[in-house]
Amino acid sequence: MLVKNSPTSEPAGLAQVEAPSIPLINVVEDEPAIQALFRNIGRIAGFEVATYGTVAEFHADFDPARLGCLVLDLNLPDGTGIEILERLAADGCEMPVIFMSGIARVSEAITAFRLGSLDFVEKPFDLDNMLESLQRAVDKDHDRRSTSASLEHIRNRFCRLSPREKQVMELVVLGAANKEVAAELGLSPKTIEVHRANVMRKTEATSVAELVRMHVRLTS
């Protein structure tokens, strides 16, 4: 099992066998013993693990495009886990976060959850509980990315529509019949039939019901 301990570099031989599909657990924690513990957890669970001792190291090397999750400590040499969460939230990063601390106030836990933390774990933590939290976070990130990719695929289909076809589609998904759409747009029913057929073809919808479902997903 390849375990990445960033920011130190890996031997060339190991770098060649990295598999991007393997979830990457990004751990921001300055205690070497806890860093080593997470590397062991990675070996057990089949994750890659990247450890960062400071906020600066994390921001310099973090890749939000990689499937995985974040584990953030509260107190770091050059900042706090809360500050990292605030920056990630401002950047629109939606990767699941596990927040951990040995000394934490309720207000900090509330702030962490408000900024998107999935779990708040007190140190010292139970190994099995941490494994469960990591797996839950990775599963959530996988589902989020799958949903995002599906929506992007639908969005690309809808972008094929001409302005007129989009007008027709908006009325069709509201349940309007061809004659009603024709009257609304000042066109002939025959022309509406053509536009409607183009809408179904370009969006790859097999039925009006499916077209409505796709429209709802994009607009909800």
Question: How does this structure look, described?
Answer:
This protein folds into two domains: 12-148, Rossmann fold (3-Layer(aba) Sandwich); 160-219, Arc Repressor Mutant, subunit A. Helix content is 55%, strand content 14%. The chain has ten helices and seven strands. The chain has helices spanning 12-15, 32-45, 55-61, 81-90, 106-114, 127-158, 163-172, 178-185, 189-203, 208-219, and strands spanning 24-28, 48-52, 68-73, 75-76, 79-80, 97-101, 117-122. Helix 8 packs across helix 9 (189-203). It is elongated and about 75 Å long. The two termini are 41 Å apart.
Short description:
By secondary structure, the protein is α/β, with parallel strands linked by helices. The chain is built from ten helices and seven strands. The longest helix has 32 residues, at 127-158.
Order of helices and strands: HEHEHEEEHEHEHHHHH
Coarse morphology = elongated
The CA-CA distance between the termini, in Å, is 41 Å
Largest sheet: 5 strands, parallel
Spans of at least 5 consecutive residues with low confidence: 1-19
Q: Give the structural class.
A: alpha/beta
What is the radius of gyration computed over CA atoms, rounded to a whole number of angstroms? Answer: 24 Å
| Binned strand content | 5-15%
Look at the structure and name the CATH superfamily of the largest domain: Response regulator
The helix content is: 55-70%
Number of domains: 2
Features:
2 domains, Rossmann fold, 220 residues, 14% strand, 7 strands, alpha/beta, single chain, five-stranded parallel sheet, Arc Repressor Mutant, subunit A
